[in-house]
Write a structure and sequence with these properties.
This protein is mainly alpha-helical and 183 residues long. It is built from 7 helices and no strands. The chain has one domain (5-182).
C-alpha cells in the first residue's frame, strides 16, 4: 500500500461515505436512510474505483440503483409497513442483478465479501422495519470490514470498525424506543 494522491483521494471519499453511513443509524425514517445512503454510495463507488476494487465499486453502483428503485416505489405507492408481492419481486430482481454483475467483477473469494454485504444490506433497506435495518448493520459492517482488509483500505478498516459500534448503539436506541412505545 503506497500513499499516492489517488490512494489519499480514495481515503477521503471513504471517510465521507462513513460519515453518511453513521448518520443513517440515527435516522428514524426509511426514506431519509435511503437518501443519505445514496450519497454515501456515490462516495464509496468513487473510492473503490480509485482503489481498483471493482467488485466493491459494482456493489456500490447496484446500491445506488437499489436506493433509487426503493425511493421511486415509495413515492409512487406510498409508505407501507407491509411487504407484498411487488416488494418480493423487487428484492429477487435486485438479488439477480447482484449475481449477474458480480460475475465479470469477481476477483477471488474475498472479493465476494462485498457481494455478501450488499445482499444483506439490500435486505436490510428493503424490509420495512427500521429496527431490523439497525440490527443487520452489525453483520454488514463485519463483512465490509473484512472486504476493506482485503483491498487494504486503511480508513475503510478503521472506520468500519467504528461503524460496528454506531450500528450497535443505533440498534439499542431503536430497541429502547420501540420498547417505550409498546409499553
Amino acid at each position: 500500500m503506497e500513499f499516492t494522491p489517488i490512494y489519499i483521494a480514495s481515503q477521503v471519499l471513504t471517510v465521507a461515505m462513513y460519515i453518511t453511513l453513521a448518520i443513517t443509524y440515527y435516522l428514524k425514517d426509511r426514506k431519509a436512510i435511503l437518501l443519505v445512503n445514496f450519497l454515501g454510495c456515490i462516495f464509496i463507488a468513487s473510492a473503490y474505483l480509485l482503489l481498483s476494487a471493482y467488485t466493491g465499486m459494482a456493489m456500490a453502483l447496484i446500491a445506488i440503483t437499489r436506493n433509487i428503485i426503493f425511493l421511486i416505489d415509495e413515492k409512487k405507492n406510498g409508505k407501507s409497513e407491509t411487504i407484498n408481492k411487488k416488494d418480493i419481486v423487487i428484492l429477487l430482481s435486485l438479488y439477480l442483478i447482484i449475481i449477474i454483475v458480480t460475475i465479470p467483477f469477481y476477483n477471488g473469494f474475498l472479493s465476494l465479501l462485498s457481494v455478501f454485504a450488499t445482499f444483506v444490506f439490500t435486505f436490510a433497506v428493503w424490509q420495512k422495519k427500521i429496527i431490523v435495518y439497525k440490527f443487520l448493520g452489525m453483520p454488514i459492517s463485519l463483512l465490509w470490514l473484512s472486504y476493506n482488509i482485503f483491498i487494504l483500505s486503511l480508513f475503510g478498516i478503521v472506520l468500519e470498525s467504528i461503524i460496528v459500534i454506531f450500528a450497535a448503539i443505533g440498534f439499542i436506541l431503536e430497541w429502547k424506543r420501540k420498547k417505550v412505545l409498546t409499553t
